[in-house]
Amino acid sequence: MSVTGISNSISSKADAVRRLWQEVFYWISVFVCLGVAGWVPLTHMVEVWINKEEYSHGFFIPVISIYLIWIRKNTWLKAGGARWPGLMMAFMGAGLLLLGNMATIRLLGQYGVITVLIGAFIARYGINAFRIVWMPLVFLFFMAPFPPFIHNQLSLKMQLISSLLGVKFIQTCQIPVFLEGNVIDLGIYQLQVAEACNGLRYLFPLFSLSFLFAYLYKGSWWQRWLIFLSAAPLTILLNSFRIGVIGVLVNYWGIDMAEGFLHDFEGWLVFMVCVGLLLLEIKLLAKLSGNRQPLSELISLYSEKEERQRNIQARVFSPVTYSIVGLMIATAGISQVLDQRQEIIPNRLSFLHFPMEIGSWRGQKDYLAQNYLDSLKLSDYILADYRSPEYQGPVNLLIAYYDSQRSGQSAHSPRSCIPGGGWEIQGMKDIMLPEVNLNGKPLKVKRLIIAKGENKQLVYYWFQQRGRNLTNEYLVKWFIFYDSLTTNRTDGALVRLVTPVTIGESFKAGDHRLAAFAKLMVGQIPRYIPN
Is position 283 within any domain? Predict the structure, then answer.
């Protein structure tokens, strides 16, 4: 070999080593800085994976993503393309991360971390590389848990749907059954369709799997969308079938059929059947399209078409790449400053001291069962029935107070919880109570008419949030976010009043009773719910 050849070989090896160290430096910088800046949302995400079965699949998602990216490295490493979109995306992700840290909204921080990672990938390897492996990168979003507000809404709705369809199945088996909210009454036994039976622990993993199958499936786009979207109806139908089967088994062989190992085994069996049906759906769609390939070829990790290889420019460090490193260092530094902020929790009187005599009204305290306390995660509450000789029926008062609503513990809307008790909402609107004055303004409440058989009740409720009188739960979430940024406070409460409307009594009489009690009661609120 000539001297020139030896020199070129040494130079080539030196360049390879230099590029390797640049690669290592770049990704270590990104991951270390993201670990510092996103420590709180990331550790929260891992805690959710560990403690909630619905999200236990989260551990596998980054592993699957890395593997899918790695097996195509020989293609995307040579793709190149513009890098500045990556810098823009990384800036956006860093903004989300810092905003999430300021407001202590974990989901924003988690999405921010993932967005920064995608941006860092594009800034390093180019937009064409992203087009080749976009799915494994987008797949990372499936590891972030839903915010509790959305999770709770989904859970309640799926409990109700699963209960209703499960009862329909039991009835087809000629077994007498009655459904009251989430409670299936078989006469001797009563089964409560609890949160553990709502189907979400199948839905979230199945959505992730269906997204993966849709990406790997070699078919048309409409078929891929159908595969992905079919996860929800499959989960609901099979979970309802599971509940129905449990009801039938309990009716014949006792309550042991709904508890312990058998209950958990039935859940795993349903999940595996869901996966099997997804694969069967893929096979049928392929057959309808005239594709007779075996399933192993229909769902393939490798594409039949090789992307056009461009150049190796993506391997060279550029100003955009260095900008990403600088952005990561700045984000980590700013996040450390933000972490020093302490949430303000104002002083207040405990509801232990809430008066049981308000004008002519005399109260009798009651207490929430432990399962409700575990679900609501409130800081303090008062539950009491008040009666007055001047009015026909009682008024039930519930005030649920939260000293912090940052980490997902926030007031639940009664209109979401009421159907779970078997009550039907027959009317709902916002009304003003001009005779009731709170903080110098007429009180605004959400008015519900609810019924269960012949029993009817009138419900008033509102959210008392740092001096604001709100009836819209979405506005409540917005102001929690806004106030956490501007005042560093997220305390607040739900106030609910309920009165029965007896047969022969008008709803107008119920309105008069609730308004009369509210007029006297709201004067007590500022001592227990800070403005």
Answer: yes
Residues 249 and 319 in one domain: no
- Residues of the chain with pLDDT > 70: what percent? 86
- Asked if 173 and 132 sit in the same domain, the reply is no
Residues near 381 by beta carbon (within 8 Å), at least 6 away in sequence: 351, 368, 398, 399, 400, 401
167 and 118 within one domain: no
Is-contact 299 213, C-beta < 8 A? Answer: yes
- Does residue 477 share a domain with residue 359? yes
The span from the CA of 297 to the CA of 299, in Å, is: 5
Phi, psi of 463 (to 5 degrees): -105, 120
Number of CB atoms found within 10 A of residue 431's CB: 14
Least confident of 158-172, 208-222, 309-323, 514-528: 309-323
Out of 22-26, 149-153, 426-430, 484-488, least confident range? 149-153
Token output for 280: 């069967």
In sequence order, the 6+-apart residues with CB closer than 8 A to the CB of 271 are 201, 202, 205, 206
Count of CB atoms within 10 A of residue 434's CB? 9
Least confident of 9-18, 302-311, 440-449: 302-311
Higher pLDDT, 76 or 11: 76
Tokens of 254: 């006792």
Q: How many domains would you assign to the chain?
A: 3
Cβ neighbours of 86 (radius 10 Å):
27
- Are 261 and 187 found together in one domain? yes
Q: Is the pLDDT score of 303 beyond 80?
A: no
Cα separation values, 256 from 194, 246, 251, 252, 260, Å: 16, 10, 11, 11, 8
Cβ neighbors of 123 (< 8 A, separation 6 or more) are 83, 84, 86, 87, 90, 320, 321, 323, 324
Residue 316 has pLDDT above 70, yes or no: no
- φ and ψ of 182, to 5 deg: -100, 10
Q: Classify residue 303: in a domain, yes or no.
A: no
Place of tokens 């959400």: 446
Residue among 56, 258, 267 at smallest CA distance from 170: 258
- Domain co-membership, 140 together with 153: no
Domain annotation covers residue 480: yes
Average pLDDT, the chain: 82
Check whether residue 45 and residue 71 sit in a common domain. yes
pLDDT at 118 over 90: yes
Say what the pTM is: 0.72
Report pLDDT for 312: 45
Q: What is the pLDDT of residue 453?
A: 77
Close Cβ partners of 216 (under 8 Å, ≥ 6 residues apart): 299, 300, 301
Does one domain contain both 244 and 367? no
Range of the domain at 60: 3-145+311-338
- Helix then strand count (H, E) for the chain reads 20, 12
279: in domain: yes
8 A C-beta contact, residue 237 and residue 165: yes
